[in-house]
Structures are given as structure tokens and as C-alpha cells.
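Thread amino acids onto this structure.
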């Protein structure tokens, strides 16, 4: 077994091609999975991406914000650079505890594809893209498409996630992330919501929301359904929106909550998020 520590993307891609190692970043998901399943930890090389310079960069472009794959949750909530994406900062601040936040990378949260992953939820609401590099070149895929199901993604052999890209229209406008869990610390989401809303409570220009932990992967409504947000945001409208998101969810029953309870929490949290945002409009 070798622990490979490339310093550049070129070096990382070469090592991935030649030695077919398992990709690691913060290791917070990998090593928990490895404790559960021996097959996930034996007889393989590891490619540690934490020191790859290109994956640590954050760049503001004309058309959006690009966040390097290895940027950690602590870096996201702790830096003013990210004050234009407060919903992502709020999600980053609730991941695990401090020790986990210091290691947990944004790309790791996406690639692990847990239905309850927190940072993925604002990314899906933002219509963010996963940017990937491989031996055959680079490509971009919307986060919502890249995650194909619980713990499943469209990552191809020989590919690395290089960054997450958030489009300009989502930056610096009112937004919020809410998570419902049992302990409010070092816990897993029972339901989570990210809402982005442009306009005022009297006249919403457009809004979009993503729901986490209430379906095999975080989901949004389709563009036609999202039009329901537009116009005056009154209590009747909120009831309809809460119902719609609840109906679109397909949660499971597990040790944390029943499917029924989760479905009702979806509606409650959409309404709560909208009221909290509307108060600041
Ligand atoms: C105690 C504890 C509490 C936690 N609490 C939360 C929580 O509250 N909310 C939450 O969302 N998560 C939580 N997690 C899960 C975890 O911390 C996050 O999912 C984290 O963001 C994963 O990032 P990582 O860098 O540690 O990924 P790793 O464990 O290094 O990797 C995870 C997966 O991503 C792949 N991967 C990583 N980087 C790349 C890349 N650049 N390209 C391609 N594939 C890549 C790896 O191969 C692996 O399959 C918790 C974990 C622990 C141990």
C-alpha cells in the first residue's frame, strides 16, 4: 500500500492513471466506511488530494464563484470570501464538529453522495456544477445530475473533481440553509432545506429551493413548479409551496425518523426558511 501525495493536478492525474489508487481528501467519510467494510481499506494505494495546489484555489470569475475541490468546511464558513454564499457557509458550519470541519472537503461531501450530505444541498439549490478532470480532458456536470443515488455518482474511472462552480445569479442574494436533526451537534440531518430568493416578500422575482435527506438524493422542483414562488409571498402561497415540496419528497423510514414525519418536516422547513428570509427582505 502506498500513500501518494501529489502537489499538482498533473501529478495527481498521472498517479491516478498509473497506479489506480483510491482517492482520499479529508478522509472523514472514507475512514468511517473503511471501519465498516474491510474491502474498502485493504490492498490498495491511496491518492491524497489535500495538497494539490489547484484544488485549494478559490476564484471569483465574471460568471460565478469557483471553489477548489479540497477547500474544507472550516475554510468555507471561516472566510469572508464566502459571505456571498451564506447558505453554503451555514451548511459548512453544521457539518460534524470542528475536527471534522477542518478536514471535510467540499468535493468529498459531493463525491460521497450521502442523501443527508449538508453542503450538497445549497450547491443543488444554486444549480452548481461539478468540474472534473481526467486523462481525456475536462468536463462539467450539474451537481444534481452528478449525484445519481445514495452513495452513487457519475464519477468516471481516472477522473478527479477539481472544483465546484456556483453561477453568478446565486451570489450575494438572500438565501438560507436550515437543518433539522436530533442533537443540533455532530449529528446527521433528518431533513434540510436551502432556499435562495430574489425580490421582496411583497414581490418575489424568483426563488429556488433544494431539499436534503428526504429522497435518495437532494432534489429541486422543476422550473414550471418553481414559478409558484413568484409574486406575493403570503401565507396561502406558503401552504401550497410546503405541500408541493412535501409531495415531491420520497423519504425513507430509519432509526432517526419515519418517512411520514420527514415528509411533514419538508413542508414545515420550506415555510420556516421562507418566513425567515422574508423577514429580511
Ligand atoms: C463524525 C462525523 C460527522 C459528520 N457529520 C457530517 C455532517 O453533519 N454533515 C455532512 O454533510 N457530512 C458529515 N460527515 C461526513 C463527511 O465529513 C463529509 O461528507 C465530508 O465533506 C467528506 O469530505 P472528505 O474530504 O473527508 O472526503 P473523503 O472521506 O476523503 O472522501 C469521501 C469520498 O469522496 C471521494 N473524493 C474526495 N475528494 C474527491 C475528488 N476531489 N475527486 C473525486 N473523488 C473525491 C473519495 O474517494 C471518497 O469516495 C461526518 C463525518 C464524520 C466522521
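Threaded sequence (281 positions):
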Amino acid at each position: 500500500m502506498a500513500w501518494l501525495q501529489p502537489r499538482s493536478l498533473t501529478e495527481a492525474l498521472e498517479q491516478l492513471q498509473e497506479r489506480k489508487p483510491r482517492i482520499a481528501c479529508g478522509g472523514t467519510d472514507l475512514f468511517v466506511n473503511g471501519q465498516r467494510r474491510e474491502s474498502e481499506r485493504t490492498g490498495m494505494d491511496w491518492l491524497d488530494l489535500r495538497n494539490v495546489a489547484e484544488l485549494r484555489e478559490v476564484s471569483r470569475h465574471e460568471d460565478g464563484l469557483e471553489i477548489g475541490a479540497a477547500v474544507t468546511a472550516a475554510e468555507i464558513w471561516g472566510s469572508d470570501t464566502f459571505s456571498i454564499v451564506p447558505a453554503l457557509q451555514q451548511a459548512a458550519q453544521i457539518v460534524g464538529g470542528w475536527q471534522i470541519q477542518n478536514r471535510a472537503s467540499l468535493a468529498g461531501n459531493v463525491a460521497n453522495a450521502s442523501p443527508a450530505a449538508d453542503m450538497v444541498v445549497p450547491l443543488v439549490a444554486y444549480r452548481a456544477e461539478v468540474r472534473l478532470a481526467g486523462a481525456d480532458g475536462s468536463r462539467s456536470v450539474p451537481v444534481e445530475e452528478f449525484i445519481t443515488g445514495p452513495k452513487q455518482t457519475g464519477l468516471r474511472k481516472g477522473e478527479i473533481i477539481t472544483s465546484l462552480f456556483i453561477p453568478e445569479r446565486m451570489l450575494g442574494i438572500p438565501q438560507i440553509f436550515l437543518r433539522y436533526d436530533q442533537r443540533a451537534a455532530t449529528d446527521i440531518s433528518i431533513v434540510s432545506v436551502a432556499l435562495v430568493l430574489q425580490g421582496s416578500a411583497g414581490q418575489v422575482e424568483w426563488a429556488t429551493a433544494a431539499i436534503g435527506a428526504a429522497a435518495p438524493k437532494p432534489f429541486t422542483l422543476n422550473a414550471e413548479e418553481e414559478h409558484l414562488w413568484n409574486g406575493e409571498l403570503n401565507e396561502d402561497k406558503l401552504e401550497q409551496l410546503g405541500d408541493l415540496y412535501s409531495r415531491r419528497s420520497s423519504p425513507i423510514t430509519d432509526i432517526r425518523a419515519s418517512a411520514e414525519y420527514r415528509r411533514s418536516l419538508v413542508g414545515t422547513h420550506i415555510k420556516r426558511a421562507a418566513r425567515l428570509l422574508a423577514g429580511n427582505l
